[in-house]
Task: inverse folding
């Protein structure tokens, strides 16, 4: 894909619908983004998990548009879409038909059952070994067409039924989804929740060797239809490095917490270590539709003998720091305080996590844009959005604190704020500066700083960010010295 910033957004929460996204990309945001990741736009967008529990993964929710609208966006911008590997909605036609008809259903064999993995029963150790991103066991009890109780795998919520991705019915289902995306103009797919797709008794059922094999095979199936593959995995940092060698792109989920840690402590040691070892075929992020990852820098949850990038004490300091700077609001949306329990992330906007400090926020974005990888910016982050306590209170879903709905008035108002104008200008600068296809060098720097150089075709860009002092100095390819974000007002 093109090495230019990518917007990630819900259609309805940012611009109303798919046509609204096209109007924003070609209007107020012209020149800022080379592509857009439209978060689940399938039927239905308002299920139990904001579209990540599709009832029909091959059909666009009519309330926000059609496949023709997706194709229209692809005429001017690359389009990325979610391919939700692990599960479907409990309200999907396939699941309801199977519950009603059992072996007579054309979908028989499509869903993962307890018996399918554990036979007549699992031992205590086997059950305790299974990793799940929520408290409790990953099973939900249902009644089949004969009234018999059955246990089905529900890794995330009871409304999201896991697919047997290795069986013929699961394989055929996923191939139908891949075809729909390719035919709709999608050029990049994000494999959502793929780390949980393969189940084996006696293992964690998360990122096991068979999972890597499945990812490589599935990526080939997508490439055969002309689409690149981005893998979404929150987990131990070594897993990201390992999977990066098997796919086109991975997320750099280690970056968001390490940037916050550096600002909170004034110490860039761990951040700089990560810059040296991180995959470079990555999508760089600070914020997404999910929370700020902690598991990505912490001790391996499946093997406590494997240390994280940050010590346990430093992880606690990171979580506490986000809470303090957000005025305690992150704590309202995280862990046991929220209905959508997440044991591996903090729910908070990145702007609030940095205490709404415009200078620190823009410096964090500058660092993101300067590192190797394709920078992705979440719509709430683009607008320097704050925690939406009203939405959190209304839904009780922790992640909704960072999933604000913008109407035309609030959207226009947000675009006029100085921090947003400068961020849009910075995005346009990043999108138009071709040196980022060249050679990156991580330079030595004094404590509390990060320094780097890009070079290509006789041109050089140098930058040094003083995280501790919240200042920066960059020498652009034309020799312009930039040390104030006001410079980027001219790109707006």
Result:
């Amino acid at each position: 894909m093109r090495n230019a910033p990518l917007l990630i957004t819900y259609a309805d929460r940012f611009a109303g619908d798919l046509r609204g996204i096209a109007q924003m990309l070609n209007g107020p945001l012209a020149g800022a983004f080379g592509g857009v990741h439209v978060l689940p736009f399938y039927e239905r967008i308002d299920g139990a998990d904001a579209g990540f529990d599709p009832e029909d993964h091959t059909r666009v929710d009519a309330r926000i548009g059609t496949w023709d609208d997706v194709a229209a966006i692809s005429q001017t911008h690359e389009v990325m879409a979610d391919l939700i590997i692990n599960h479907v909605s409990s309200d999907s036609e396939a699941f309801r038909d199977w519950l009603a008809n059992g072996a007579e259903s054309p979908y028989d064999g499509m869903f993962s059952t307890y018996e399918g993995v554990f036979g007549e029963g699992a031992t205590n150790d086997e059950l305790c070994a299974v990793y799940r991103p929520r408290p409790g066991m990953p099973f939900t009890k249902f009644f089949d067409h004969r009234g018999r109780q059955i246990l089905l795998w529900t890794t995330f919520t009871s409304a999201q039924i896991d697919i047997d991705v290795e069986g013929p019915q699961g394989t055929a289902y996923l191939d139908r989804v891949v075809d729909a995306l390719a035919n709709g103009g999608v050029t990049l797919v994000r494999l959502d929740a793929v780390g949980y797709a393969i189940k084996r008794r006696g293992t964690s059922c998360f990122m096991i060797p068979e999972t890597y094999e499945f990812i490589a095979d599935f990526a080939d199936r997508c490439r055969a239809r002309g689409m690149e593959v981005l893998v979404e995995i929150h987990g131990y940092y070594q897993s990201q490095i390992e999977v990066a060698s098997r796919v086109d792109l991975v997320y750099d989920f280690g970056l968001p917490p390490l940037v916050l840690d550096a600002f909170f402590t004034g110490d860039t040691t761990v951040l700089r270590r990560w810059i040296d070892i991180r995959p470079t075929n990555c999508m760089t992020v600070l914020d997404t539709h999910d929370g700020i990852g902690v598991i990505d820098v912490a001790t391996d949850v499946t093997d406590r003998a494997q240390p994280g990038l940050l010590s346990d004490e430093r992880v606690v300091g990171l979580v506490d720091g986000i809470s303090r700077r957000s005025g305690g609001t992150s704590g309202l949306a995280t862990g046991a305080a929220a209905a959508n329990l997440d044991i591996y992330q903090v729910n908070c906007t990145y702007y609030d996590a940095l205490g709404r400090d415009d200078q620190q926020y823009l410096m964090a974005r500058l660092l993101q844009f300067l590192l190797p990888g394709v920078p992705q910016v979440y719509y709430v982050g683009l607008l320097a959005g704050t925690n939406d306590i009203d939405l959190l209170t209304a839904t009780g879903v922790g992640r909704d604190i960072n999933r604000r709905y913008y109407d035309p008035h609030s959207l226009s108002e947000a675009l006029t704020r100085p921090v947003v104008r400068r961020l849009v200008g910075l995005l346009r600068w990043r999108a138009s500066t071709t040196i980022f296809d060249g050679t990156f060098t991580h330079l030595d720097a004094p404590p509390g700083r990060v320094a780097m150089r890009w070079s290509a075709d006789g041109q050089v860009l140098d930058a040094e960010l003083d995280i501790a002092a919240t200042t920066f100095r960059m020498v652009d390819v034309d020799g312009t010295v930039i040390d104030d974000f006001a410079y980027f007002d001219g790109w707006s």
Q: What stands out?
A: Residues 465 and 472 are 4 Å apart (CA to CA). Residues 168-183 form the longest helix (16 residues). The chain has three domains: 6-86+168-438, 93-161, 441-491.
